[in-house]
Amino acid sequence: MPEIPTKPYLLRALYEWCVDNGYTPHLAVKVDSRSQVPSEYVRNGEITLNVSPTAVHKLQMGNDLIEFSARFAGVARQISFPMAGVYALYAKETGHGMTFEVDAAKPSVQIEAEGEPASAKDGPSNEPGPAVPPPPALVAPAAPTEPTKPTGGKPQLRRIK
């Protein structure tokens, strides 16, 4: 049996750290043909999602897939994407988080059916939609080193392979 990658465990731990500290966790995702996300919020084959407990409903961060429901512009959507597409999780307020390598895949989006009924029980809104800022500078050091301390600007994140 192949070894399970560390990435899902690190993402779940970072998510919990963000929530426990009152931060807003954001996921930066490379969108591919397996991703079910609202195409109108995809920019350059990527999407950044607010995954705080107040923005999503029924968040499941499995070893292979991340799933939840959220509202975009008041419309409930079911979101899912492969764990392999996640390239960062960070706290919106501080920029602290971690980047990850992404498996190469063809960028495309699974288009959702228009006019799907939105149920009030689908959970809180994932607003502000496209106003969610992009992740902080996602630059990894050339060789594994100690994490860089912030110098007043946006922090650099360490890439995990």
What class, by secondary structure content?
A: mainly beta
Shape: globular
Share in helix: under 10%
The largest sheet is:
5 strands, mixed
Beta-strand share of residues: 25-35%
Record the SSE blueprint.
Blueprint: H1 7-20, E1 25-30, E2 46-50, E3 56-61, E4 65-72, E5 75-82, E6 86-91, E7 97-100, E8 159-160
Parallel strand pairs: 7-8
Antiparallel strand pairs: 1-2, 1-6, 3-4, 4-5, 6-7
Structural commentary:
This protein has one helix at 7-20, and strands at residues 25-30, 46-50, 56-61, 65-72, 75-82, 86-91, 97-100, 159-160. By secondary structure, the protein is mainly beta. It has a single domain (7-160), classed as SspB-like (SH3 type barrels, Roll), CATH 2.30.30.220. The strands form two sheets. It has a five-stranded mixed beta sheet, covered by helices on one side. The radius of gyration is 16 Å and the shape is globular. It starts with 6 loop residues before the first helix and ends with a strand. 25% of the residues are buried. Mean pLDDT is 77; it is low at 105-134 and 136-152.
List the defining traits of the structure above.
161 residues; mainly beta; SH3 type barrels; five-stranded mixed beta sheet
Kindly summarize this structure in a few lines.
The chain has 161 residues and is mainly beta. It contains one helix and eight strands; from the N terminus they run αββββββββ.
